[in-house]
Write a structure and sequence with these properties.
Blueprint: H1 3-18, H2 22-33, H3 37-52, H4 54-65, H5 74-88, H6 94-108, H7 111-125, H8 129-137, H9 143-150, H10 155-167, H11 174-180, E1 189-191, E2 203-204, E3 211-213, H12 219-225, E4 230-232, H13 235-245, E5 255-258, H14 265-277, E6 280-284, H15 288-297, E7 306-308, H16 312-318, E8 323-329, H17 344-347, H18 350-370, E9 371-381, H19 390-399, E10 404-405, H20 408-413, E11 423-424, E12 428-430, H21 433-436, E13 442-447
Parallel strand pairs: 5-6, 5-8, 6-7, 8-9
Antiparallel strand pairs: 1-3, 1-4, 2-3, 9-13, 10-13, 11-12, 12-13
Helix pairs in contact: 1-2, 1-3, 1-5, 3-5, 4-5, 4-7, 5-6, 5-7, 6-7, 9-10, 13-14, 16-18, 18-19
The chain binds S-adenosylmethionine.
S-adenosylmethionine binds at residues 237, 260-266, 284-287, 290, 311-313, 329, 331.
InterPro entries: MeTrfase_RsmB-F_NOP2_cat, MeTrfase_RsmB-F_NOP2_dom, NusB-like_sf, NusB_RsmB_TIM44, RCMT, SAM-dependent_MTases_sf
Pfam family, one: NusB
Domain SAM-dependent MTase RsmB/NOP-type: 157-449
Length: 459
């Protein structure tokens, strides 16, 4: 059996059965298997492609197997998904895809499982991919479900993205936004301001003055030679940190807090900016292992940063009216980074949204309490879900009536090399993969009144 298919199957199966994350597990498995670069590329395409379009393949498999996928053994279902991806999206020769899948089924299951796999995949291969799509689309009755099928998203995610785009009057971009989730992002880097320069052959980012791509070279090698000052970072994340540090001029001695800092990408940029402006930075991260990643991320910046491991909802109340700037990069569903986390769309549920929104609301409340008079908080998510973005901010403003919204879009217009054209209601910014090529980050800047005696209103 081709080693690339074996690796892909192992990762896909670990994702379905033990909650593994493909973007973390796959690099380990590729290294263990010592695959050639070509085979590693193939294993990546097989893994990511199968996981992204899993819901679509499940519909096809249910047709071909004439039974719901819930009645198929877990391991055999994963073999079928991997086979369906090769037949429907990669145009691998039918006999190769079927034969290798039968081998996998034999090693993962039994003789009867191999026969079943053979039958189902042969049925799938006898119908053209475009015809399969026509069959599945013939079963749906509304536009949301049509897009859910054609772009391989759960319907609730399609509705969430539609709502977020509608808020920006961009509802007609829904199909483009969903299609962008299915394209692999290019690796993007940052040269920390004041500490490193972009390499000469780098391709500068469109918007971030410190961001670049390294089309010719190996980004991992480049990062290894950069002493912690050249880092992999999405352009949207760079802009989120810069929105906070550039919102108003920095006064020496300001106190800054990164409330949810792990794994530390934005903390490193904040630290470089704090160093340049003679500000002090504290970082906090609930999960100790992730706090250690923050310490590692900060290693390239010659600034002393204390890294704590408190629950951010409590830490902020212990330091009332203390910080001049707070970054709240909140834990979220990650619906704005689906192109990086291929399994995420099928794993997340609307229940996750309601649990996270409670936490996001408490963290923003706490951050506002911890702001010094005149201080600024940047509320950031890598999700465009309105429940995690605009509604959290509105609720915080109702609870803290003195807080003022800043025009985040105008702040970033002073930072970016090209206009972002990303204004969202209430002065916020909503970025999109299909528009800016970044993750779909939401960024809202809020300022506390200069002389605030304002008590928080109970919610
Ligand atoms: C979106 S990530 C932050 C990403 C980070 N700013 C970066 O750029 O690398 C959110 C982080 O919040 C942490 N977190 C979750 N609940 C928290 C809490 N109650 N207090 C502090 N941190 C929390 C998560 O462990 C996660 O590392």
């Amino acid at each position: 059996m081709q080693p690339a298919r074996r690796v892909a199957f192992d990762v896909i199966h670990a994702v379905s059965t033990s909650d593994a994350y493909a973007n973390l597990l796959l690099p380990h498995r590729l290294a263990e298997a010592k695959l050639s670069p070509a085979d590693a590329g193939l294993a990546t395409e097989l893994t990511y492609g199968t996981l992204r379009r899993r819901g679509y393949y499940d519909r096809v498999i249910a047709h071909a197997a004439k039974r719901p996928v819930t009645e198929i053994d877990d391991a055999i279902l994963d073999v079928l998904r991997l086979g369906a991806h090769q037949l429907l999206s990669m145009r691998v020769a039918g006999h190769a895809a079927v034969n290798e899948s039968v081998e996998l089924a034999r090693s993962a299951g039994s003789r009867s499982a191999a026969g079943f796999t053979n039958g189902v995949l042969r049925t799938i291969s006898r119908t053209e991919p475009a015809e399969w799509e026509r069959i599945l689309l013939g079963e749906v009755t509304n536009d949301t479900d049509r897009l859910a099928v054609s772009t391989a998203h759960p319907s609730w995610v399609v509705r969430a993205i539609r709502q977020a785009l509608d808020l920006q009057d961009r509802g007609d971009e829904l199909e483009d936004a969903l299609a962008a989730d299915n394209l692999a992002p290019q690796v993007n880097l940052i040269a920390l301001p004041g500490l490193a320069d972009r390499p000469e052959d780098a391709e500068p980012n469109r918007f971030s003055p410190y961001g670049f791509r390294n089309p010719g070279g190996d980004p991992v090698q480049l990062v290894g030679t950069g002493g912690g000052r050249l880092r992999v970072q999405d352009e949207g994340s760079q802009l989120a940190a810069l929105a906070l540090t550039r919102a108003v001029p920095v006064r020496p001695g300001e106190r800054w807090l990164d409330l949810c800092a792990g794994p530390g990408g934005k903390a490193a940029l904040l630290a470089a900016e704090a160093l340049a402006g003679e500000a002090r930075l504290d970082a906090n991260e609930l999960v100790p292992a992730r706090a250690r990643l923050v310490e590692r991320a900060l290693a390239g910046v010659p600034l002393e940063v204390s890294v704590s491991t408190a629950d951010g909802t409590k830490l902020a109340a212990e330091h009332p009216a203390t910080y001049d700037r707070i970054l709240l990069d909140a834990p979220c569903t990650g619906l704005g980074a689906l192109r990086r986390r291929p399994e995420a769309r099928w794993r997340k549920t609307p229940k996750d949204v309601s649990e996270l929104t409670r936490l996001q609301g408490s963290l923003l409340d706490a951050a506002i309490t911890a702001l010094a008079p005149g201080g600024i908080v940047a509320y950031v998510t890598c999700s465009p879900h309105v429940g995690e973005t605009a509604l959290i901010v509105e609720s915080a403003l109702r609870a803290h009536p003195g807080m003022e919204r800043l025009d985040t879009s105008a702040v970033l217009d002073q930072v970016t090399t090209e206009p972002l054209d990303a204004a969202a209601p209430g002065g916020a910014v909503q970025l999109w993969p299909h528009r800016q090529g970044t993750d779909a980050m939401y960024i809202a800047l809020l300022r506390k009144p200069a002389e605030s005696a304002e008590p928080a209103v109970d919610r």
